[in-house]
């Protein structure tokens, strides 16, 4: 009963998978029966082909699993070790009220747990929610093209600069106002290292607290034709308004792009003007952090990096140089309005080393929340929020500066809602005393303008009531007891910096938004309900308790710049996560900062570059298996390696790395080899049993070994990566470690490294002393940071919660049951379908496998009027007709269908899936003509993605009446309950109706 678990917003007793041990639905009898089917006697037999020298000697040294009630208690206690106080922290991450609709949207599991919308017919819920976000941000900023792919502001800014560089051939320099948030500056430096991009920073003028237009112009002119972009904030690191018009016009005069960094909460009606109105023609691009539009600080993330660029009659080409994912409006084959991913040919899964970025996820769920939050606020709500923040700041200035020893640092400079005060006492001491008075006072910014004295930045938002400002004033009165006759008055915002006109975002009732997004969820499917067999994606069950833990106020409400003494619970999470993953990987150090698997790859390669640089070795060759994820080659080029220097390694007849070819490459390029990037198990679901030999070979040549850990769900707890010779590995926590995919993101990752790389780890390392006090510090030769703060901390809480539920026995059991489930399916399906790689049918499969069609089946499909190249994608659509999501189609084998069941499903569910696939086999053999019209029961017919890309529509005006939602033509859950033969008949009937409709409308 629910009363057994008080304080939850869900009842775990009603959730079939939530209370199962290790979230594994298979019973012990299920496991025994499946083992018997595949010819094994115990789970350990599944790893008999793994060389003993690389096996884990024992279960990983992490704590024993916690029961559900113990888990709830433990996480609650950890969250209470944080102290959330009345906060005036903003700076790198603003903190506004969370709109009422957000918790509800977070509870819609068909949206939170769904995969990236590569199957648009079964993903219109996700696609529509991102479309709303794009349209709302377009209305707010004035940019026609907005994407939802950037992890947060700092990395988004780097992607924008690289876009500008591509748009000006031969350019290599970005001139940047150093009045950006310092965390953003550090990330830019980290990302640009070892690439062809030079960063030139222009300091603030000590007298004004802002960048001098003359200094920026001098730097820009010095770069000449090499200048890719001018980069500047609207509100700078002291809260002051920069000369955005002058900077934008300067960029145009210099023949380059302008990139404006904004705070979207401050550009409402009658607030600051949007970047599209900067200067004569608007900034070329804008970048922003948008986390605070929908969620609390979460001790740094997940974030949402806003990015916008022009796409109109005067500029239709710049968008093609951008990174990230866009959603476009299109039509299905029957002419219904719908949405699809567009411009994919720029992305890593297609362009590989020629991609505009290595990003393979997007921030879908933060975008979904932000779109809904903007509908709740609407134009009027945005205006009220910005107005209240400004009024609070103006009131606070007058109150605080009425004390002797407290002044505006730059009284003539206009600001919006963040106040830079000059005080007569050391700021760290003030912050510590304020902490004891229940205040997070602000941020010490004294070092940002050397010689200016003691400076503190105080942030005011809509979260602050007048009584909060009174409490703040009382603290200042206590610290600075002498009064002046008058305090400062805030400088007026120049009229030409105020937004003209309204923001065309309708304000919609919360109940209406909730109901609308509930219906959007119905257009997706979730791994909650049935197998979601996407190969290489690990679509496992995402426990509700993980989300509950991440939402605990002690975690969610804490700002990343809070004093360390008030963040002990968060630091403990980071520390324990580091320690647990050391034990799980067998490697001696871990960073938790990366925000996605692809970024984890980049972190690893950046550390390799730093290691070789310190050794004074110029190593420019990267070895990559041909079957690698597209992120691997895209990561290498993003890190600065030339595409021509990425050498592909083929597979042998067993589906593993061709050792003879590898030896030949090492002999040819030895002194130049930087590293090899190798996925294990590989993308065919086959363990690279020669991995240690590969590592020894590369190490002997002086290179390093990167393991793509995207498939760790097959080997966690069984294989010691240290013994294998791995120097760096990432794990996608949104795969193996149960973070929900959110329609594509936010992702999350950690990176573990060998002892060679410990000093190069990015971000911070968490430590604990003998008194149990946690602290964080940067490693000695850190490559820098790859996120403005601590990474996607909310996801780290989810991951930690999952680890504590698994415990030392659960980690290897999780992996083994995942492998068993795949072997069980493979055992039967290989009787009906040929398998890939060709010739490797007897090589043991791990957690996933690839099927293809026989020559006869391909022939039947072609005779039915479907091209051979379309056969596999169309068969993928048949899975949608059975109420399931499709497996992975055409990757890594163009004619392959990759299936990964994970450990989440019971034997009867796997058996039902087998019956579905067997029926699909019969359909292909007996009624292949239905492939002409698949899918038949989703809300829309097959999307005309060619047309959507040809006639790009990336935003439109939102109205009071939200977009109509087409119902499912048959509910997915009902289809999965039907007999397979009945579904087959229903498909044939629907196909005939579709053909008749085409004839009648021909």
Q: What brief labels describe this structure?
A:
1002 residues; alpha/beta; Aspartate Aminotransferase, domain 2; Aspartate Aminotransferase, domain 1; 4 domains; seven-stranded mixed sheet; 29 helices; 28 strands; 37% helix
Overview of the molecule:
The chain folds into four domains: 103-113 and 122-323 and 359-376, Aspartate Aminotransferase, domain 2, CATH 3.40.640.10; 377-497, Alpha-Beta Complex (Aspartate Aminotransferase, domain 1), CATH 3.90.1150; 556-808, Type I PLP-dependent aspartate aminotransferase-like (Major domain) (Aspartate Aminotransferase, domain 2), CATH 3.40.640.10; 830-936 and 970-1000, Aspartate Aminotransferase, domain 1 (Alpha-Beta Complex). The chain has 29 helices and 28 strands. It starts with 27 loop residues before the first helix and ends with a helix. The protein has 1002 residues and is of the alpha/beta class. The strands form seven sheets. Strands 2-8-7-6-5-3-4 form a seven-stranded mixed beta sheet, with helices on both faces. Strands 16-22-21-20-19-17-18 form a seven-stranded mixed beta sheet, sandwiched between helices. Strands 11-12-15-14 form a four-stranded antiparallel beta sheet, with helices on one face.
